[in-house]
């Protein structure tokens, strides 16, 4: 790998690491699992980065890789994850601390979202990130109409969970 490719990757990852943290928050329940998932997503992004053609925004591509990694890992009944040693590379990415106690309402929303299935979680996450339905559909590999219909159903589910 060229040094320029590494620098580009590190810069893009720094600029987009908050989306990875949010995905980790959706699919994990404690700090250690969050860090493990963050590391695994970072590794998967790094491994796939040479194939990134720039057909979509880096953030859209990163969403897809991160969501697929999270869904794949947490659907497995065992937590044995094969990892790739990346210390040999010349870059290290510092993780910004993600403070989960900032707002009580966010905690309640996360608790409600945790009750959704994996695809519903991904859709809610992207919706809350103000992604338009075109980008949501592209990232999740579904039609735009399907994304809208699913989101309306999810909104109803969340209302029932939050206001029984």
From TrEMBL:
Keyword Cell membrane: no
Molecular function as annotated in GO: DNA binding; sigma factor activity
Pfam families: Sigma70_r2 (PF04542), Sigma70_r4_2 (PF08281)
Domain RNA polymerase sigma factor 70 region 4 type: 109-158
UniProt cross-references to SUPFAM superfamilies, sorted A to Z: Sigma2 domain of RNA polymerase sigma factors, Sigma3 and sigma4 domains of RNA polymerase sigma factors
Protein name: RNA polymerase sigma70 factor
Organism: Flavobacterium aquatile LMG 4008 = ATCC 11947
Any one Gene Ontology BP term: DNA-templated transcription initiation
NCBIfam families: sigma70-ECF
Origin superkingdom: Bacteria
Keywords: Sigma factor, Transcription, Transcription regulation
Family (UniProt): Belongs to the sigma-70 factor family. ECF subfamily.
Keyword Transcription found: yes
